[in-house]
């Protein structure tokens, strides 16, 4: 981005004029400037520099933008006008007046009126630099002509008539020695008085058309154009607040208010053209209106209280004494009340966001009193709505069953925006807010931090709700699983082993009866009983294997997985089992879960993967206190849109039962990777080999 030469030139002129005005103004007593009805030296020139800077910024981005040129020219003109006023004051200090005094008077007093054209031109050209089209162009040209009437009249009107029209005082004595009317047009005084009166009346009338043009453009704008127009609206609101504030101050601050308004307008126009997205203009505009209204109400209340206190003190004290005592009384008695009133009004306008501790502590207290999940979520929604004065807040939580629980406060608008509610990296729900929020509810950086804290509270509350649901669901599943297992064992024992044992007992009795008369027949019957006992032992072995694989006690976890791999291995598939760390003292539940997960993963590889190699790795992480079971193959991998089957779901459920996790992902080089992490907890007591042998060998399993 290159600096525009024309904009830079006018900026240099404005800065040089401002420096000259300041240096010359230092040599002029303020009393002399007051005598000549001149403003203090410096503020006007600095306002001109700001205006020229804004114009140069616009020309840097848009080299031919009419508004950039306009602000650069008028900024230099404004600063030169102030420099001329300073030289006028300095020249008239001497007798006779220094050269250039008459020219300085003409520049400041006559040509300076042309600065009135700046406001209507800005309103008509903003933001694209184009005048209205159609018949509105003719209306605006007439409006500009009416605005130009006063500057043109002041160029040729006699100074005496101009002074009499604007001020009842005569021309100051130091100015009488100057040539005040170089372009005097001889007309009757009555004619000039009428012309000046009409020209002054035309100034407010001439601004109606530009204001109507601005309103039409604002209503027709959208997107970036609407943001640009809102920058101009913000400038109008800020200027109004500045001028109202200046009215409460002494008259000496009137010029300063005009300069501040000029700087604000120039800055907002430049930002609106160059970078309308620099800040959130909607939030800035809403905050300006809110704080301006609060400030005005506070000042008005202060004046009423201070004036009432002064009157109550009685007429026996002079004005100064009454003022001092009133201020002292107000500071003691009214200060706390004023602070509370300020907080009360702000809370009514923008909510409770100004007191984050109150919001957070109130939420925590209300969450403690909530009995169920729905009440907790509704409490959160109402707290956010109250804190940010939002007409609608929704809290949506994903339940354990996969269904979504939505709790709302207020009437849901047409469009909403969702903020994720996460807990330890897992998204467990959403916080819903209106997409187009009112200006008073727009969030600052502090508000966003408070909302983030509330969302963290929401995440904790939602997580507690989910944990409670999971706990209750886990209890129900545990009870159901225990009862199902008991029912299965009862059925197996009653319907299988019970009749078989009865049959064996009957054969033994028969063998005893027939042994005396026919030993051969008794031996045959006992052989049949032996066969039935062998079948029952097989059934018992099957039942025991369902409870806990015997291989875990015979050859350990790694050996059991290797045996299972050998039984399941298909032709062309190489299975390798690797272990890292000490796996000898794992808890029984962890051993069973690891064995089942590895077996299920290996079964999926054999059935679906079409792999050439499968590696099962068991790693004990002592620092993390967990066992990692990783099964990796080089098969076809997971296809797009694969739905988890019963096998994959069982993997996750087995890991979750122990508080662990299981993920099924695509391997880096193709194939599938099943990674289960099982918490181990404290070391389990080492089992004795003698006891293990007794439980297996004595029954022949």
TrEMBL record:
What residues does the Histidine kinase/HSP90-like ATPase domain cover? 589-682
Q: Where are the transmembrane segments?
A: 45-63, 70-93, 105-126, 138-161, 190-215, 231-250, 256-274, 286-308
Q: Which UniProt keywords apply?
A: Kinase, Membrane, Transferase, Transmembrane, Transmembrane helix, Two-component regulatory system
Q: Which GO terms describe its molecular function?
A: kinase activity
Organism superkingdom: Bacteria
Transmembrane helix as UniProt keyword: yes
Write out the coiled-coil annotation as residue ranges.
none
PANTHER family hit by this protein: NITRATE/NITRITE SENSOR PROTEIN NARX-RELATED (PTHR24421)
UniProt protein name:
Sensor histidine kinase
